[in-house]
Amino acid sequence: MKSPVDRPRSSLSDVARKAGVSTATVSLALRDSPRIPAKTREKVRSAAIAVGYRYNRQAASLRTQCSMTVGLLITDVANPYFAALAGGAEAELERRGYLTFLLNSGDSTERQDKQITSLLEHGVDGILLSPAGNTTAGLVETITSSGVPVVQVSRTVAGLDCDAVGPDNREAAREAVRHLVSLGHRRIAFIGGEQGSSARRERLCGYRQGLNENGLAFHPRLEPLAAPTRENGAALARQLLEAPEPPTAALCYHDMMALGALEGAVAAGRTVGEDFAVVGFDDIVAAALSHPALTTVHIDAETIGREAARQLIARMAGDRSPPRRLVIPAHLVVRASCGAAASAAANTPGQ
């Protein structure tokens, strides 16, 4: 027979499963947050008793003090763009005496929910959030209702009135399409990204606007969805180029997908920069080092991170002004990967 010491401790996740709510809701309900309905708070307390969970109110009371810690949640730790963004944010926060907890959601809302709950339990003073796809406004509002300020970084949640700092995705995508059209391209694909990503929605919108301004129709077949990985970029490019009426150019969701698209184009028998053009987004270091060098939209990720940190610091210091959205300009950097001219486009099979 196990002694009480040997028994595994119940966790917030156990309470959440028993009550049928999220772990973030459990955390706030046990703090008597007015954001959580009284009936839900009572259900959570009953569930906590049922699973033997003991809430440490002494530890929870530390939330009223400054911990000088901040949570930074990103969606893809392997993407150099987020490394640069995190570097800018961390440098600004460190300059003001804050320690940064960096967490990678992997673009999973379930994982993100657990990470946010953990950050709240550890008493962070604020959160910088690059939201996972399909994040709801309710999740972020639950955080802010507990008194912890949130600033969205690089991505935003639809329908949420909250501070945000990010690039001008729409205008940058329009600029990229205009450039490709000026080279003679008329069938331009938009490769990758997932449906729930605000960055994809904005870039896709700018891409379509660019086509429309030049009298070109968009085709859903030329806008394939996929998780933003290099491997998927290669697979989608090859798939498009081996299909009837292939595109002569592609604007990719981000540089990692674009680097994959370079490989996929070669596998499909194309010569990038001659009979097929590729444009990326982000301008990571590898973009200039690829062969051919990648034309891409330059986004100043460090500045985005730094400005988001400054906004969060102001909120943590008591700034209660209306939510602010800061848009950082982006611009096209032309390199060899989009060198296809009108004559090359006209000679591409399927045109």
TrEMBL record:
Q: Which Pfam families match?
A: LacI, Peripla_BP_3
- GO MF annotation: an example: DNA-binding transcription factor activity
Record SMART domains: HTH_LACI
Q: Keywords, A to Z?
A: DNA-binding, Transcription, Transcription regulation
Residue ranges of the HTH lacI-type domain?
10-64
Question: Is Nucleus one of the keywords?
Answer: no
Q: What is the protein's given name?
A: LacI family DNA-binding transcriptional regulator
